[in-house]
Specification:
This protein is mainly beta. Helices cover 3% and strands 42% of the residues. The chain contains 3 helices and 57 strands.
Length: 802
């Protein structure tokens, strides 16, 4: 219908097209044109004449080759018209074909990097092993709701096999101990998500992995985890309301009828009929733990350091000690084969001792006395069975051919030796790891510094080789042995850097309860020498800072909604007479954020490996879901850049989605606050040269986790996005390519050949450190053109304005 309003519209459109066809006046229509020479990812933004980004038009959009016409409506990122428009603006369109490739895993020897056959623990690689025939059964302790039990063929130990008749990878039982009589496999464990139940023993059949019934003496028990529940049809030794009374040892007779379960916390040894599950005896024993059976003899570790042999009576009682071993100061796990009993001796020894089962005479010993307490260098003849935290695990398991496996838990590996005590092979799986650091001045040195078990290990990486198995990496150092128990395991060794004096330094976050250093919430600098263990320098600083590649210290001061925050830097000034680094007492102000608003990318600490780009731009990054006042969901910007010494943003990007958003993970340029994600779900931001990459680990995103990375140029436009999420990949059990859980501190590095890589950890998917290659950066190109601010009447006619 012809109406006055429609007539006005036609007049405006006619006026617009007159300008387009020859009038000399520049039309203020927000129109711009650009050309893509080949299919590329593109992003575009509107900039003021001082190169300040005022609007991101689109991000990470795949476009075919061609010439395109687009428009800007004169609004900012929040849909508001700019109140004081400049006469002209600049449009910048960036296009690229940067490639992101998942290289695989470091710290995991599995034959495949993906799929159900990948070895992966949680706190440790394995806590126990029992071998019958050509099958080794193992358990892994705490596993955060996933199966702690599995097996492998002794002919192919790098392939993990699920116990499918037992529940596969969703068994929910955390098992610490395993034993077998050749017919059944017995498991002793607990449920971490229902701590009122501290002990359960159940069995599976060797023939088909199906659960074994103990008849009337077995109890059906359902364990729940974060995502599922599993019912065990027949459990014995079920102890409730005493979480501290978990099993401390397990053994079973081969030809006899007895199953032994030690409970060190209760000073009890429980003896069951292994077939019926009937309790035969509840014996009072001082702190029983390591158990092993040979025929009718039970070897047991008890008391402070007693290791003795007992004869098992038909009713399950024990004789007095028939033989007691000498020379063991800190006994741990124990195993026995015909004529030989082996015992882990931890503490200051860190060796495996071997004795004659008849005479008690000590034979050879395996290991290097003192282990990693004196030197961090990794060899196949050194073990780390316990540390200053008081952790003591380890296991010993004989195979029918007389070879045996040693659980070198402090190194997250299991070493295989032949009957003559010669090294054969090893299995390694880091389990849960949260913090990854790479020496920015020597990218071959990669550190897993936030392992759930408390370890601090270093790898040497050969960039010319594949990461599959262990061809492109090797475990070279274990720095965790002499780190005291005041260290938060998520925040252990941080920012190792080789400085100008050729020495490597890092720092360790400490807390109250420090045993041999100054008490307080501090970070202490340590040196990582070429020989020996960590050297504690005694140099302390307040927590929450970044140790940058040039040796400077970067901090955030002040902050909060409505106030002012500064990013600052203390320059490295040299080294004192003890070769400890020294810093300027004056803090350089790198950038200032004044009158902080809810939409600003403010965070109270530096969450980066470095805040200064090669072109002297300063990064601000907020990885939190909640705003700076801690009570509202942050839908503002999460990434920003200022000039060095500046106080205004050149750009702000990664604008929050909506708390009620439900959908696919958003493209680069957005920051996810929906899909049920928890606070602090962003990781670190990394910069090398002028490459900027943000990260997002997405705790509880769609009840899973994410592993996404967004790359930006120094003008705030998205280059690309890589990574994936567990929701897409089918959950953590899939070990899909590139999928990770809780990768908290990804780090971008450049190696000696000038190639770029992203490293990050993994809580639950792969049991190792991930590496991505970033290539074809030369494909990045940009086009710019100046345009006038669109007049409101034209914008309205073209549908720009409401």
């Amino acid at each position: 219908m012809y109406t006055p309003k429609f007539a006005a519209f036609l007049c405006v459109v006619a006026f617009y097209f007159c300008f387009q066809t020859g009038y000399s006046q520049v039309p203020k229509d927000g129109k711009f044109t650009f050309t893509i020479s080949a299919q590329s990812r593109t992003s575009a933004g509107v900039y003021q004449t001082d190169s300040t980004l005022v609007r991101t038009l689109w991000s990470d959009s795949l476009m075919s080759a061609g010439t395109y016409i687009r428009y800007w409506d004169g609004k900012d990122d929040f849909g508001k018209a700019i109140s004081s428009p400049d006469a002209t603006y600049m449009i910048r369109v960036v296009s690229n074909n940067v490639k992101y490739a998942w290289d695989g895993i470091i710290g995991n020897t599995s034959k495949s990097n993906t799929g159900s056959t990948v070895h992966k623990g949680y706190y440790v690689s394995m806590t126990g092993m029992a071998i019958t025939g050509t099958t080794a059964y193992f358990c892994q302790g705490y596993s955060e709701g996933y199966s702690s039990q599995a097996k492998f063929s002794t002919a192919n130990p790098q392939v993990r096999l699920d116990l499918n008749g037992f529940g596969g990878r969703q068994s929910t039982m955390n098992a610490d101990f395993v034993a077998t009589d050749g017919t059944n496999v017995y498991w002793a464990g607990y449920n971490a998500y229902q701590l009122s139940v501290s002990s359960i023993v159940m069995a599976t059949a060797v023939s088909n992995d199906a659960q074994v019934s103990f008849g009337a003496n077995g109890t059906s028990y359902t364990m729940t985890s974060l995502t599922n529940a599993k019912t065990y049809i027949s459990a014995i030794d079920l102890i409730t309301n005493n979480p501290s009374d978990k099993p401390t040892g397990l053994a079973v007779q081969g030809s006899g009828n007895c199953l032994f379960v030690a409970h060190g916390g209760a000073n009890e040894l429980h003896v069951f009929n292994k077939t019926t599950g009937a309790l035969l005896q509840n014996l009072s024993v001082n702190n029983p733990r390591g158990l092993a059976v040979e025929g009718n003899d039970l070897w047991m570790v008890s008391g402070a350091n007693t290791v003795a042999k007992y004869t098992v009576n038909t009713n399950g009682t024990l004789s007095s000690a028939a033989l007691t071993l000498s020379g063991i100061t800190t006994p741990g796990a124990i195993a026995v084969k015909a004529g030989e009993v082996s015992v882990i001796d931890g503490g200051t020894n860190q060796v495996v001792r071997f004795y004659n089962t008849t005479t008690g005479a000590q034979g050879t010993q395996l290991g290097t006395r003192g282990g990693y307490f004196t030197d961090a260098t990794v060899t196949n003849s050194k073990f780390l069975f316990d540390d200053y935290r008081g952790n003591q695990y380890g296991f010993l398991a004989y195979a029918p051919d007389g070879s045996f496996w040693v659980g070198d838990v402090g190194n997250y590996r299991e070493l295989h030796f032949n009957a003559a005590k010669s090294y054969l092979e090893y299995i390694m799986s880091l389990g849960a790891n949260y913090e990854v650091y790479v020496d920015p001045n020597d990218a071959t040195r990669v550190f897993a510094g936030g392992l759930a078990g408390g370890g601090i290990v270093e790898f040497a990486v050969d960039y010319s080789k594949s990461l599959t198995g262990s061809t492109g990496w090797s475990l070279v150092k274990n720095w965790g042995a002499n780190v005291a128990n005041n260290i938060n395991y998520h925040k252990s060794l941080r920012f190792p850097i080789t400085l100008s004096n050729g020495r490597t330094y890092a720092f360790i976050r400490k807390s109250n309860g420090i045993t041999n250093q100054t008490v307080g919430s501090k970070a202490e600098f340590v040196e990582l020498p070429s020989t020996g263990q960590l050297r504690f320098t005694g140099v302390l600083r307040d927590n929450d800072f970044v140790f940058a590649s040039d040796g400077s210290i970067q901090v955030v001061a002040g902050g909060g909604i409505g106030s002012t925050a500064t990013l600052g830097r203390y320059a490295l000034t040299g080294f004192d007479g003890s070769n400890n680094p020294t810093w300027s007492g004056t803090r350089e102000t790198l950038a200032t954020m004044s009158n902080i608003g809810y939409n600003d990318p403010y965070n109270s600490r530096v969450v980066s490996n470095n805040v200064i780009t090669a072109s002297n731009k300063i990064l601000w990054w907020n990885p939190r879901i909640m705003s700076a006042n801690g009570s509202t969901v942050d839908t503002g910007f999460h990434l920003g850049i200022m000039d060095r010494g500046g106080n205004s943003f050149n750009f702000k990007t990664e604008i929050g989605t909506h708390v009620n958003y439900r959908g696919a993970y958003p493209k680069a340029g957005s920051y996810e606050v929906g899909n049920g994600v928890h606070d602090n779900s962003g990781g670190t931001v990394s910069t090398v040269d002028n490459i900027i990459i943000t990260s997002y680990h997405g705790e509880f995103w769609k009840n899973y986790q994410t592993n996404y990375f967004n790359q930006y140029d120094q003008y705030g436009l998205a280059i690309g996005q890589f990574g994936t999420d567990q929701y897409v990949e089918g959950g953590a059990s899939a070990a899909a390519a590139g999928s990770a859980g809780n990768a908290l501190t990804p780090m971008l590095v450049k190696n000696a050949n000038g190639n770029y890589f992203m490293y990050h950890g993994d809580e639950s998917d792969h049991g190792g450190l991930h590496r991505w290659s970033i290539t074809n950066l030369g494909s990045i190109s940009a086009q710019t053109t100046n345009i006038a601010y669109p007049s409101s009447y034209v914008a309205q006619a073209l549908g720009y304005l409401d």
